[in-house]
Amino acid sequence: MAAIYSLFIINKSGGLIFYKDYGSAGRMDTNDSLRLASLWHSMHAISQQLSPTVGCNGIELLQADTFDLHCFQSLTGTKFFVVCEPGIQHMEGLLKVIYELYTDYVLKNPFYEMEMPIRCELFDLNLSQAIQKDRVSLFGR
């Protein structure tokens, strides 16, 4: 079983701009992935407003019995979140690597329009390599 079940990238408006499934047991269709991204965006925004802590950036980790959901929000408001096996500790670093790939291969692409779905072959290729490298370092497979 993979350490990462799925990866979502949500634009600052709450729209799903990238989704990749990495072999989760319950595969989602397009509508389910859009609903989950919208729900997470809303929960993240509400948690920022309701937090008793001044300067709260929203939910960064949601733990459940069967999965963990790790989130990284960039300064522009774009959210990156992974659904992974419970108890994996290094996902914050992986999310930052994914953000670096996003800035290098998506934002620097002259044909990419901001806030639109990501269709970039170099991003997909380098993302797959980063995920595979992470899997090998974590499990040795």
UniProtKB/TrEMBL annotation:
Q: Which UniProt keywords apply?
A: Endoplasmic reticulum, ER-Golgi transport, Golgi apparatus, Transport
Where it sits in the cell: the answer is: Endoplasmic reticulum; Golgi apparatus, cis-Golgi network; Golgi apparatus
The answer on whether this UniProt entry bears the keyword Transcription regulation reads: no
Per the record, its GO cellular-component terms are: endoplasmic reticulum; Golgi apparatus; TRAPP complex
Q: Which GO biological process annotations does it have?
A: endoplasmic reticulum to Golgi vesicle-mediated transport
The family note in this entry says: Belongs to the TRAPP small subunits family. TRAPPC4 subfamily.
**Quaternary state and partners of this protein?**
Part of the multisubunit transport protein particle (TRAPP) complex.
> What is the designated name of this protein?
Trafficking protein particle complex subunit
- Give the gene name: LOC105044968
